[in-house]
Amino acid sequence: MSKSMWIISILILILMISSFWLAKDREAPPWVKCKESLFAQVVFKQCTPSSFAVPDNFNQKDMNQKLEDELPYEAPQN
After folding, report:
1. What's the pLDDT at 61?
2. Which tens digit of pLDDT belongs to each residue from 36-47?
3. Considering just the CA atoms, what is the radius of gyration of the chain in Å?
4. 3-state secondary structure of 78
5. Distance from CA of residue 61 to its chain's centroid?
6. What is the pTM of this model?
7. Contact call for residues 49 and 67 (beta carbons, < 8 A)
8. Are 49 and 34 in contact (CB under 8 A)?
9. Which residues contact 34 (CB under 8 A, 6 or more apart)?
10. Phi/psi at 49 (nearest 5 deg)?
């Protein structure tokens, strides 16, 4: 490998490690907590809680209340 390939490889490795390190303590954005796509959440107002966003010891009733607080529901205007 040439010298420039080594430099690019090292820079990519540093970028990957730093992004992992900085994102470790960050909480997920609210749209990641649903199984549906962001489009379905915005247009169809759908949100099925993801198993990755809910801890094992989290009460189901508390989760429903939390989701209602985070995602406002607008009734269809048909």
Report:
1. 52
2. 888 888 888 888
3. 20
4. coil
5. 22
6. 0.37
7. yes
8. yes
9. 41, 46, 47, 48, 49, 50, 53
10. -60, 135
Give 49's strand partners: 34
At 74, the amino acid letter reads E
What whole-number distance in Å separates Cα of residue 46 and Cα of residue 40?
6
- For 34-72, the DSSP string reads BSS-HHHHHHS---PBPTTTS-TT--HHHHHHHHHHHS-
Q: What is the pLDDT of residues 6-24, one digit of tens each?
A: 999 999 999 999 988 887 7
The position carrying tokens 């489009």 is 39
Tokens 């470790």 -> residue: 24
Evaluate whether 63 touches 49 at the Cβ level (below 8 Å). yes
